[in-house]
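Lecture 7, part B: from sequences to assemblies.

Below are the input chains for today's worked example.
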Amino acid sequence: MSLPLDVLEKAVNQKLLLLLKDGRHIEGNLLGYDEYMNLVLDEVEETKDETKRRLGRIILRGSNVVSIAFI
Amino acid sequence: MSLPLDVLEKAVNQKLLLLLKDGRHIEGNLLGYDEYMNLVLDEVEETKDETKRRLGRIILRGSNVVSIAFI
Amino acid sequence: MSLPLDVLEKAVNQKLLLLLKDGRHIEGNLLGYDEYMNLVLDEVEETKDETKRRLGRIILRGSNVVSIAFI
Amino acid sequence: MSLPLDVLEKAVNQKLLLLLKDGRHIEGNLLGYDEYMNLVLDEVEETKDETKRRLGRIILRGSNVVSIAFI
Amino acid sequence: MSLPLDVLEKAVNQKLLLLLKDGRHIEGNLLGYDEYMNLVLDEVEETKDETKRRLGRIILRGSNVVSIAFI
Amino acid sequence: MSLPLDVLEKAVNQKLLLLLKDGRHIEGNLLGYDEYMNLVLDEVEETKDETKRRLGRIILRGSNVVSIAFI
Amino acid sequence: MSLPLDVLEKAVNQKLLLLLKDGRHIEGNLLGYDEYMNLVLDEVEETKDETKRRLGRIILRGSNVVSIAFI
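Predicted structure of the full complex, as structure tokens:
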């Protein structure tokens, strides 16, 4: 069985596509995470209502995340 | 009696249909889960307002889930 | 006095009518539950805006439940 | 001083009028409760937008309750 | 320094004006409280959209309270 | 480094401007606080949609606070 | 791997751009933080619907934060 945090561990340094509760999409490389699924991401690009914005490095609070896709 | 997490345990490697709080439907094979009902799913197809999207492998945060159906 | 979880215990294998926070109604036989009132239900029928849908067996997360009626 | 749970204890077998977060009113006899203010109620009548509905016996999750009035 | 619960302790048997998250105002005499700021109030008058309603004695769940004013 | 609760400790008896989740602004002198950032404020003035209202002494539940500015 | 709180530790005395749940943007220098990601910020500028406002020093509750970008 694949535990969610183990799957996240294997995704460090890989590219993720996140869906947030407010409908925003976040694409970026995973640098780190903690037990609450707070994430550190690099080379982040945010998409909201078809508008893209580059954000560099961010901390994303896990409570806002709906899903994390591996791309 | 069937405990919710025991039922989830037996569903590993089976197909699930999830309803999320934002109305989205997620269909995929269950790879794993944790005590918060965070789920790891593979071969995921998301349906929102009758639009389908393939997402591959995802982690889904349990706090967004309304119900998990076995199909 | 009747503790809520004791009342749930006695309802195993009986038919329940649930009201969810999003207005949906869920009818089904209770197979099991846990301390967070996550429920396992069988022969489930969901009603939303007067549209019915059969869901078979589901896990329902307790945090979405408003009330559980015994029918 | 009257602790909230002590006041609830004394209300067992009495009639309550509950206001829920979604605006619904619930009237019923209190059969039991737990520390989260989950309630067991009997002979329940629900009122929503001036429409009444009889529900018999229910478990009501405390997280949906705004106020409990003694009538 | 005045701790919030100490200030509440001194307000027992005094009149309070509460603002709830749904915009409702509640006026009443404080009979008791607990560590979650669940309150027991007596001689309660509720105001919503300029309509007043007398509620007698109520338990109010602390999670719905925005502010407690001393009047 | 300045810990949030240490900064609050130094602000006792000083004037604060709070922004609440519902858009309301609260101005008042800080009398006390607890670990949940529940606050006791005096000489409070509330502003909502450009309407001001004097509230005297209040307890404000921390869960409704977005930000606390020092003025 | 970069833990979220370690990344925050290294950002003390640096400029951050925060996105809040209500759509507000907050720019300011990080003075401190705690384990809940409550933040102390200085020289704060808030942007809401293209209107800017200077706030000086603030405490920001972590539960309102979506993301923290390093600029």
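Note for the exam: The first helix of chain B runs from residue 4 to 10. Keep this in mind when comparing with the next example.
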